[in-house]
Specification:
Largest sheet: none
Oligomer: single chain
């Protein structure tokens, strides 16, 4: 597979259009925003699940004693 790199000083209009049709910066632009929204939710869910499991195990341990 041939890799094509376009250097800025070598770009012409057709190459620029081809490059823009293939690549997009949308993912990179929204990554920090989504990280700020999704990360706290994910961490909260993981923490909640771990605390719930710990409480269930603690309750079973107390019942065995």
């Amino acid at each position: 597979m041939k890799m094509a790199f376009f250097e800025e000083y070598k770009l012409n209009t057709e190459q620029n259009k081809a490059m823009m049709a293939v690549i997009s910066d949308t993912g990179r632009r929204f990554a920090p925003l989504m990280g700020l929204i999704i990360s706290p939710i994910y961490v909260g869910l993981c923490f909640g699940v771990c605390v719930t499991i710990a409480n269930i195990l603690k309750t079973f341990k107390e019942l065995d004693e």
